[in-house]
Write a structure and sequence with these properties.
The protein has about 55 residues and is mainly α. It contains two helices and no strands. The protein has one domain. It is about 85% helix and about 0% strand. Helix 1 runs antiparallel to helix 2.
């Protein structure tokens, strides 16, 4: 699998997780939704930097 395809797939999975959590738990709560979305992005970024980035 090419590097670009892996990154695109990773971003699509991250967006699906964010959308799923939003609709399942935080439908009418703006600030909680924003906080959790930022947290999810930070977790995905940390995982990417730790395990998927090649030197």
């Amino acid at each position: 699998m090419s590097r670009q395809l892996a990154v695109v797939l990773y971003v699509v999975v991250m967006a699906a997780v964010i959308a799923g959590v939003d609709f399942a738990f935080f439908r009418n709560r703006f600030w909680e939704r924003l906080t959790v979305n930022i947290g999810i992005v930070l977790v995905f970024a940390a995982f990417y930097l730790r395990f998927l980035r090649h030197p």
